[in-house]
Design goal:
By secondary structure, this protein is of the alpha/beta class. The chain has a single domain, classed as Alanine racemase (TIM Barrel). 39% of the residues lie in helices and 18% in strands. It has an eight-stranded parallel sheet with strand order 7-6-5-4-3-2-1-8. The radius of gyration is 17 Å and the shape is globular.
Length: 226
């Protein structure tokens, strides 16, 4: 199927998931994860109506962003960010989903231009997987508080990559826990609205939407297998 047809199928899945959970499709932002795909495929997806794209690596993204600078794309960094690439990431991306430490937050803050605020999401590792980045559930409130003190960062919510399950229903408890964790952080830090929950990928985003996702990160279902 073409990218345009794939996008239409994804949008229909979003509509159905929203209908089941009493939500409006406008409440869910579709981030097309374009890592490993060339700029030409991203341009095709843009022409089919998508405006927000996610990349995993700063260096790979930099080339594509330059190739596509004629398009008003909103770029999201969704992969692990090393502190020594914080300055470059801040130059390239409009959103950072993968903030996973106070040290990284401080590096991003130090790289800010005067008066600039960068929307960031705190990545939480609820599965305790050593192969995945993210702060632990018990330290999320403390880290959120420290990040909130850095004036050039706008902490907008939480991000999750749950363990992979063949049956997407098995991911539901993780999505629910992230939503509940957000409520605890809101209670402890009432100055933070934290409107965003970035969770759900190609195989499980319907369940994530049913549990409150406001951003879903979809690659394979749009661009095909890597």
């Amino acid at each position: 199927m073409s990218i345009q047809e794939n996008i239409q199928r994804v949008e229909e899945r979003i509509r159905k998931a929203c209908s089941r959970s009493g939500r409006r499709p406008e409440e869910v932002r579709l981030i097309a994860i374009s890592k490993t795909f060339p700029a030409a495929r991203i341009r095709e997806a843009y022409q089919a109506g998508l405006r927000e794209f996610g990349e995993n690596r700063v260096q790979e993204a930099a080339t594509k962003i330059d190739d596509l600078k004629d398009l008003p794309i909103t770029w999201h960094l969704v992969g692990h960010l090393q502190t020594n690439k914080a300055k470059r990431a801040r130059e390239l991306f409009r959103w950072i989903h993968s903030l996973d430490s106070v040290r990284l937050a401080e590096k991003l803050h130090q790289a800010a231009r005067e008066g600039e605020r960068l929307p960031v999401l705190l990545q939480v590792n609820l599965g305790g997987e050593e192969t995945k980045s993210g702060v632990g559930e018990n330290e999320a409130l403390r880290v959120a508080e420290e990040v909130s003190r850095l004036g050039s960062l706008d902490l907008r919510g939480l991000m999750l990559i749950p363990p992979f399950f063949e049956d997407a229903e098995n991911a539901r408890p993780f999505f629910r826990r992230l939503r509940e964790l957000r409520e605890r952080i809101r209670a402890g830090l009432p100055q933070l609205a934290l409107p965003e929950l970035s969770m759900g990928m190609s195989h499980d985003f319907e369940v994530a939407i049913e549990e409150g996702a406001t951003m879903i990160r979809v690659g394979t279902a749009i661009f095909g297998p890597r």
